[in-house]
Amino acid sequence: MATPFTQHHVSVVVNAPVHEVYSLFAHFREYPGFLKVMSFIKEVTYYDDQRSHWVAELFGRHEWDAIRENWVEGQQIGWRSTKGLENFGKITFKPTSMRQTLIEITIHYKPPAGALGDLGEKLGAGSRLEHVLHKDLTDFARMVDQAPPGALDPASPHFLFPNKSTGQTSYRRDEHEGSSNRIAEHLHQQQEKAVWPYQREDTSF
């Protein structure tokens, strides 16, 4: 009998308009670095604008190739694995007001075959995944609340990722913690006494 997909869903409301939130999440290469919106993701490598390679740590190290699927500009990001760990999912962005956005993440994946995969699920890999996703989204919402003016607006010269993310094919967390620290230091200098506490411990599991 084929192993069924497990589904996990989390959501949060953030105090920023849809276009700003969508622009941040569309920067996959920043997931292992500054954003950490999926902190179990350790590396993202782009093959082209449709295909990418992902490395994650969820009760062990797992890798997969993915293709963009069901993307709706400014509304939804979707993907489906084509090789490696079987998974698919989407992130949706819905306005709840002019200045607020509901973010919903839905992930479906098949636990790795064999005893290790079964053990991981029995030990609570699924509930741990949801816990980490919820914490990541909560931290992201706090980051948005404390962001300096222009930092989240892709039309602003102070936008976090003006050209950096789109010009690189690979982004690894361990290589870019220094970059995260430099961004935080720069933001602190821009806004006296403002703390942007989006530096946190590794949540590998």
UniProtKB/TrEMBL annotation:
SUPFAM superfamilies: Bet v1-like
Phylogenetic lineage: Bacteria, Bacillati, Chloroflexota, Ktedonobacteria, Ktedonobacterales
Family matches, as InterPro entries: ORF3, Polyketide_cyclase/dehydratase, START-like_dom_sf
Gene3D superfamilies: 3.30.530.20
Residues annotated as transmembrane: none
Official protein name in the record: Coenzyme Q-binding protein COQ10 START domain-containing protein
Coiled-coil region(s): none
Disordered: annotated span: 148-205
Superkingdom of origin organism: Bacteria
Stretches with biased composition (Basic and acidic residues): 171-191
